[in-house]
Design brief:
Helix content: 10-25%
Distance between the termini: 34 Å
Number of strands: 8
Radius of gyration: 18 Å
Largest sheet: 8 strands, antiparallel, barrel
Strand order of the largest sheet: 1-2-3-4-5-6-7-8
Number of helices: 1
Order of helices and strands: HEEEEEEEE
Oligomer: single chain
Strand content: over 45%
């Protein structure tokens, strides 16, 4: 109930803010990506897969900053952890995108961002008896990510997006929670 009301609040505020800002600049872009990845990125075993869908809206970060954008994304992830409890994650995130190289063919970019959301674990996920939990049991998770990618212009006002992201998800209020880390490859479109 509180999750649904929080997501509705983000959607309403985000649509009002993005609409007003986009009308001033006429630079609002929409897009989506699908992705797949594997983890644990910083630990010894790659025994987890993650899949997802990311709808997004992109806006200029400031009026005259042509190399900087901000993005608001919806996050729909499914984590398939080998021999453990699978779970999904629903959330929202905010990204800062820096595009240092922009040419007629497209652009290269760096991205950093983070967000909050709901996870369906409902229990502490642990490997072994005494290790710290991978993720907590509060149905609330935070995540952060960084990455790099390319936009390839394929038509007027439309680009193919190819991207790599290193993602971390954990429960922010459980200090013993070490979190899950994944390497992800994203493919999408911006229009």
């Amino acid at each position: 109930s509180y999750l649904l009301s929080t997501l509705l609040l983000f959607i309403i505020v985000g649509s009002i803010v993005s609409y007003s800002y986009g009308e001033e600049e006429k630079k609002t872009k929409w897009g989506f990506s699908i992705f797949g990845g594997m983890g644990d990125a910083f630990y010894s075993k790659a025994d987890m897969w993650v899949y997802g869908f990311l709808p997004r809206i992109s806006l200029p970060l400031r009026k005259n900053w042509k190399k900087w954008d901000q993005e608001f994304e919806g996050n729909f992830f499914y984590y398939d952890i080998h021999k453990m409890h699978d779970f999904y994650f629903l959330g929202v995130s905010h990204n800062i995108v820096f595009k240092p190289i922009q040419e007629r063919w497209g652009s290269l970019f760096l991205l950093v961002g983070g967000g909050l959301g709901y996870d369906s674990t409902g229990e502490r996920l642990q490997r072994g008896g005494s290790e710290a939990p991978l993720i907590g049991d509060q149905h609330f998770a935070g995540f952060c990510h960084g990455g790099a990618g390319m936009f390839f212009n394929i038509a007027r006002g439309m680009a193919l997006r190819v991207e790599y992201r290193l993602c971390h998800i954990s429960e922010p209020f459980d200090t013993s929670d070490r979190g899950l880390n994944t390497h992800n490859v994203l493919f999408g479109f911006a229009f």
